[in-house]
Specification:
The chain is mainly α and 195 residues long. It has one domain. It has 8 helices and no strands. The longest helix is centred in the N-terminal third of the chain and has 37 residues.
């Protein structure tokens, strides 16, 4: 029989996670630990939905940015037109639902199992970063990519890409990088929960 802590040493978990501090943190915010209780199951279900939403959101925004970047690099009007349509479509199919799941489940956990949630530093930072990223998506990125998608409809017929598309692409790349970076930083706040 392996000694106690074997799994932690095997996966180097103890080097990154202080389990005593984690248990104290969970007790401090009164998170349920017993799976038998309805509250515990509710928390675990919400946490699972929250993580799934974040995976959907982050996976899509990173992969979509790569896909768009690589399509633009070809300078082929038909490839870019297809990719541009998909960038806009995947935001509505994956990014928006992922964000909605992350927000809904995250806030349900926060308000359901904690009090004074805006006084919790890691949660406040996480929310602010998420809100800032959302503002960039709503005010800059989505309008930009909708314009680009409309322009892309003419690429195949005209066999050319207008300069306006490349200007919009530059703006999308800059603000897109910021909008991706903010939720990546948010992951730090949500996982490590610094005080």
């Amino acid at each position: 029989m392996p000694s106690k802590g074997w799994v932690e040493r095997m996966f180097c978990i103890h080097y990154y996670v202080n389990f005593d501090e984690l248990a104290q943190l969970d007790r401090a915010v009164k998170l349920p630990h017993k799976r038998e209780s309805g509250m515990g199951n509710t928390y675990l279900i919400l946490k699972s939905v929250h993580i799934f939403g974040v995976m959907l959101l982050m996976g899509n925004i990173i992969v979509t940015a790569w896909w768009k970047f690589m399509a633009n690099k070809t300078k082929d009007p038909s490839v870019i037109a297809f990719a541009q349509r998909q960038v806009t479509l995947t935001d509505f199919v994956f990014t928006a639902p992922g964000a909605l799941l992350a927000i809904t489940a995250g806030d349900s956990m926060a308000y359901g199992f904690m009090s004074n949630t805006w006084d919790v530093q890691w949660l406040t930072w996480g929310r602010c970063l998420f809100i800032a990223s959302g503002i960039i998506w709503i005010t800059v990125l989505i309008p930009t990519q909708i314009k680009q998608a409309r322009m892309a409809r003419t690429f195949i017929a005209n066999k050319s890409i207008p300069n306006e598309y490349w200007k919009l692409s530059k703006r999308w790349n800059i603000f897109g990088a910021i909008a991706v970076l903010l939720p990546l930083i948010n992951i730090y706040w949500m996982v490590f929960k610094p005080n």
